[in-house]
Design goal:
- The chain is of the alpha/beta class and about 650 residues long.
- It has 27 helices and 18 strands.
- The strands form 3 sheets. Strands 7-6-8-9-11-10-16 form a 7-stranded mixed beta sheet, with helices on both faces.
- α25 (about 570-580) links the parallel β17 and β18 (about 590-595).
- The longest helix has 23 residues, at about 615-635.
Length: about 650
């Protein structure tokens, strides 16, 4: 490999580590940026993934790696879905053929992949706190190292960012904060800060600044420090009119910007100035999500934030005719809202992915997007409930973990009617462990007065959503997985609130199938029946608190089996076991669920297989338990 690759075709292949970037000429860097965009579009078109955010940070990422020395200097991304370009230039190009697939690259930074990755921070608004601690540690240890935190402006809608900024400003540590200002988080960024930055982007003076920077630097073969300093030596009063500088300087933070984030030379110059300051500095980079790929740029909804597989040439998503869980919820919520004017919707920067967008479209005054701020969403919902409304808070299951205290003390302790709808519950697959919605039934199962529903199909989702919003004396959760809705599974009969899905002539095994695992339970029951056992399969529908009727059914069987798409520890199986003990029902129980741990990414089917959550695994295990019970009976009779 030569020190200065000479042909565009060879540039990307030559970048095996960030050090190569420092040897490129400005012209070569521009060519490399174009090659990286082509590479991203080609790879993500086959696997799906976070395309829009990464198209927007190509030049910004190249500039960071040319100015700083990773991995000695630590580069943190908030959120981590904008790290694909970072992965490319740190020697992981080959892994993109299996992006977000088993054995391939994760969709976020990963310590297991590279020494250039430090945090797997796919939950937003955390990087500045990490950076604050890291910079303090380096300073205390006397290490000459920088920390760079790339913060999407959507992350600044999260309270942790401002808690961190308050502490960072009180230090003199080597910390550079790059605000990636693209006006969007998942969807268009909302809130007061977003309005401030949006006003900035629309300000004619700001446009002139960017044009001046771009034109002047474009005409300069080498970006000279004097040129850049002249452009930034504007009187403070004029800068105040076109930038958010006062906001950050009031916190005690130095500010550089706005800088055109797609002008690599301008970005490098700004970053070098920030690096040389040797104290916390904010570099405000203005970028365009989806930049360089027209279908992404023109997508008003989310600029192809995370598309599935698509045709590169037409920009058309590959067809999928399956009915999605989110769509069923979105349609039913609108119908409920038609009937009940007190029903309102809340989401945390994810109106489209969670289905709230449908309500927002029909009743814009009754749908609230609070930004990436789940804690605020929960307590704001408490206020809405106190005001006589019934809020429906739609978030991914993994993200509600962030608002446990608010659900417990701000909502449940006040007995407020707030419904949380948890999309992507259970093992979700490609996005990896931080996105698995496997904790909710365990974590929120301890909240007094909270009820949790787990629908098994479209019919029960509609039904249980309506039951949830009918509750007026406490919070409710309705959880469902990602992807296609399971086929309708009608009940044979209903016992109290429990649906009986199958009954055998004998009552050997009571199989409690939670939510979308109803099909898995029925398949396992078929296999057990082939072994001569009588199996009753039930769907409790509402899993917390445990229905009283379940203990009565359990008493009629020799073994209780629970299967759930969540953590075993503290999950539905544990709750059923406790209910049986409390009712003095002495029937053994075998629980199947997700083992505690951070499980790798892959397809849902692959993960369930590796975790032993298949019909074959369950039937084999239960057969062994029943054989043990049979032997015990025989020994007793002898």
């Amino acid at each position: 490999m030569s020190d200065s690759p000479s042909t565009p075709a060879g540039l990307l292949a030559s970048v095996t580590d960030p050090g190569v970037l420092k040897r490129l000429t400005p012209e070569q860097s521009s060519l490399l940026a174009a090659e990286i965009r082509d590479f991203l579009v080609a790879k993500v078109s086959r696997t799906g993934g976070h395309l829009g955010p990464n198209l927007g940070v190509v030049e910004l990422t190249l500039a960071m790696h040319r100015v700083f020395d990773s991995p000695r200097d630590k580069i943190l991304f908030d959120t981590g879905h904008q790290s694909y370009v970072h992965k490319i230039v740190t020697g992981r190009q080959d892994g993109f053929d299996l992006l977000r697939q088993r054995g391939g690259l994760t969709g976020y930074p990963s310590q297991a992949e590279s020494e250039h990755d430090l945090i797997e921070n796919s939950h937003a608004s955390t990087a500045l706190s990490y950076a604050d601690g890291l910079a303090k540690a380096f300073a205390l240890r006397g290490e000459d190292r920088h920390v760079v935190a790339v913060v999407g402006d959507g992350a600044l809608t999260g309270g942790m960012c401002w808690e961190a900024l308050n502490n960072i400003a009180a230090t003199k540590n080597r910390l550079v904060i790059v605000v990636n200002d693209n006006g969007r988080s998942y969807a268009p960024t909302i809130g007061g800060l977003a309005d401030h930055l949006s006003t900035l982007r629309l300000n004619p003076g700001y446009e002139k600044v960017l044009d001046l920077v771009k034109d002047a630097l474009g005409q300069t073969p080498v970006v000279g420090k004097p040129v850049f300093e002249v452009l930034h030596a504007v009187k403070k009063g004029i800068k105040d009119a076109v930038s958010p500088q006062p906001m950050f300087e009031d916190l005690g933070l130095k500010y550089i910007g706005p800088v055109d984030g797609h002008d690599q030379q301008a970005m490098e110059s700004a970053l070098r100035r920030a690096k040389g300051f040797n104290a916390p500095v904010i570099v405000h980079a203005v970028t365009k999500k989806g930049y360089g790929y027209r279908p992404a740029e023109e997508d008003e909804a989310d600029c192809w934030h995370s598309p599935s597989a698509f045709d590169v040439h037409t920009g058309q998503m590959l067809p999928s005719t399956a009915l999605k869980w989110t769509k069923v919820f979105a349609e039913e919520l609108v119908k409920v809202a038609d009937e009940r004017p007190d029903v309102v919707g809340i989401t945390a920067a994810m109106a489209e992915p969670t289905g709230i967008a449908a309500l927002q479209k029909k009743y814009p005054e009754r749908a609230y997007d609070v930004g990436i701020a789940e804690q605020h969403a929960a307590t704001s919902a408490a206020g809405l409930a106190m005001g006589g409304l019934h809020p429906v808070v739609a978030v991914y299951a993994t993200f509600l973990n962030r608002a446990f205290d608010q659900v417990l003390l701000d909502i449940a302790m006040h007995g407020l009617p707030v419904t949380f709808v948890l999309d992507r519950a259970g093992i979700t697959g490609p996005d990896g462990p931080s996105h698995y919605g496997i904790w909710d039934m365990s974590v929120f199962g301890v909240v007094p007065g909270l009820r949790i529903a787990a629908p098994r199909d479209a019919v029960t989702l509609r039904e249980e959503l309506r039951e949830a919003v009918a509750v007026d004396d406490g919070p409710t959760i309705v959880r469902f997985p990602t992807g296609a809705v399971a086929p309708d599974t009608p009940a044979i009969r209903r016992v109290g609130q429990i649906d009986v899905l199958r009954e055998g002539e004998r009552k050997d095994i009571l199989l409690v199938a939670v939510g979308s695992f109803a099909g898995l339970g029925l398949e396992a029951a078929e296999r057990l029946a082939e072994q001569g056992y009588g199996v009753t399969v039930v769907d409790p529908r509402w899993v917390r608190p445990v229905p009283i009727e379940l203990t009565g059914l359990a008493a009629q069987h020799r073994l209780v089996v629970t299967v759930e798409d969540g953590i075993r520890a503290g999950g539905v199986g544990d709750a059923v076991a406790a209910a049986l003990r409390d009712a003095n029902v002495r029937v053994p129980l075998r629980d199947f669920g997700v083992p505690a741990g951070f499980h790798p990414h892959g397809t849902r089917a692959q993960l369930l297989t590796s975790l032993g959550l298949t019909a074959q695994d369950i039937a084999r295990d239960v057969t062994g338990v029943m054989s043990g019970l049979d032997e015990s009976v025989e020994a007793t009779s002898v």
